[in-house]
Amino acid sequence: MAELQQLRVQEAVDSMVKSVERENIRKMQGLMFRCSASCCEDSQASMQQVHQCIERCHAPLAQAQALVTNELEKFQDRLARCTMHCNDKAKDSMDAGNKEPQVKQQLDSCVAKCVDEHMNLIPTMTKRMKASLSSIAK
After folding, report:
1. Running DSSP on this structure, what letter comes out for residue 109?
2. What is the mean pLDDT of each run of 10 residues along the chain (138 residues)?
3. What Pfam families does the annotation carry (predicted)?
């Protein structure tokens, strides 16, 4: 993928991840740590009970992190498939005898289209993630 296009996607995804972390994940981390601390304050609990309590406290955050990772992987896979399709079209075009400058322009245009389409998916993906994270946090 052209470096400029890659940078555009990376910056948009980074911005989205920061927003999700700040607005959702961070609150869940605070809850997890406070919950874990309260587990440790139970002087009557056995070591195993404390450990299980801490595990229960950590479960929502682990679920949230897995959700975010899964969404980002799906997004990355879709973008990679799109750019792979562009590479295949460029190779077919070269095999058909087209000149390299023309093929490079076609490839760049195709990749730019992929990036544009996937940039438009980010707001919906963000909304979906935040809704899922909100339901986990309850």
Report:
1. H
2. 83 95 94 96 94 96 96 96 94 89 92 94 95 86
3. DUF842
